[in-house]
Amino acid sequence: MPTFARSVAPFLRAGRIALRRPTASNPLLEAIGRGQNAVRVVDTCRGMAVAFQRKKPHINVGTIGHVDHGKTTLTAAITKVQAEKGFANFLEYGAIDKAPEERKRGITISSAHIEYETENRHYSHVDCPGHADYIKNMITGAANMDGAIIVVAASDGQMPQTREHLLLARQVGVQKIVVFVNKVDAVEDPEMLELVEMEMRELLSTYGFEGDETPIIMGSALCALEGRRPELGVEKINELLKAVDTWIPEPVRDLDKPFLMSVEEVFSIQGRGTVASGRVERGVLKKDSDVELVGKGPTPIKSKITDIETFKKSCDESRAGDNSGLLLRGVKREDVKRGMVITKPGTVTAHKKFLVSMYVLTKEEGGRHTGFHENYRPQIYIRTAGESPSLKTTLLENKSGLLTSRIDEAAAFHWPEGTADPSKMIMPGDNVEMVCDINNPLALEPGQRFNVREGGR
Ligand SMILES: Nc1nc2c(ncn2[C@@H]2O[C@H](COP(=O)(O)OP(=O)(O)OP(=O)(O)O)[C@@H](O)[C@H]2O)c(=O)[nH]1
Ligand SMILES: [Mg+2]
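The joint structure predicted for all components is written out below.
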């Protein structure tokens, strides 16, 4: 396996991994022995090497909030304070906002990814832009956060993007928020600070966060960064990180969740039966487990997995991240369709009507040039539903009878009941909540991501 050997070589040289023959007690090497995807194995090696160094749980966080309220300054200040403890590399302000346009305009445009640690945890931190023109970058940055730090300048109080970012954070599934009231060095009036705190608690509750319990820390990122007034600077950064450590919970790892694989392709293997393949989104599936096929029809189809194949080799289990083929007992090939999910029984249900939160890309972002009204009917893409098969599989289909049907999911969007003016237009750049109807039910859960396209855009 030359690719594997090359990729692992640096770790071998560093003495972090010993390359042994596969053994039953070493799943990593067993995996190699089973001929699994080399890329995954290499990733596992990296994971091991890294875990070897830190052994701390990993959490994704980031800074959100209105433009110029001090998100990037705070991010730089955190790295400074943690660098002094040996927990980070100090990144100056200019090393975070480093694109020429960002420097010229003094704003963040694209999200920056930063790393640091605390005593107990390792953090990946995304510093999001606050400017209203770069909402798309904020959404993609926030989409992977387990929790967020919302920065609000004491001098301004909450502003439009304070509110919009909180709403978006909730929409992309961020569970917990910590508030940093910044620029306290520039505010003399204690009543002003009280007011900002009170208004933030109200706003958090409005958007479904725990307004009363959420930690609110008041300080100055600039003082921390410049090493001035420690009572507003470094001490408040320490307080903030303590709040982040305790208030934002460790996420449930994908491997610990109930099994789910979205079907990409369906094959019929002579003498054996129907095989559905795809990438495992979460959980672990053992051979001989009962499963349900959910979506495309009114009721789930029950089945049992009698064999699992990963890269044409039979194995005993399939785990999150694997590309697997599952041999389904008693299921006909034509009953299995791309876009269905194979899950642990009773964990997922299918729906035809649901409420969506949708950001409409602007023309500059590659979206529509004009607005649209309700009853808009684009294509919707949810997991593998709606994707057309790649050219490769289409070609294979002709040669080997591989069955991959192109299923286009047409969706219709309407304003929710009770909307004051249903004739209102939705414009590029808008962030809206609408009701979506699809023809065939699909497996859906709160927070499920989707894309909408029309004419390939
Ligand atoms: N007085 C004072 N000024 C601050 C503080 N923190 C940041 N600033 C200043 O506020 C301005 C904006 O700070 P940034 O960190 O760029 O703000 P931002 O939230 O990252 O802005 P965008 O990324 O463009 O949304 C800069 O001039 C900072 O020096 C603070 O604690 N006190
Ligand atoms: Mg910034």
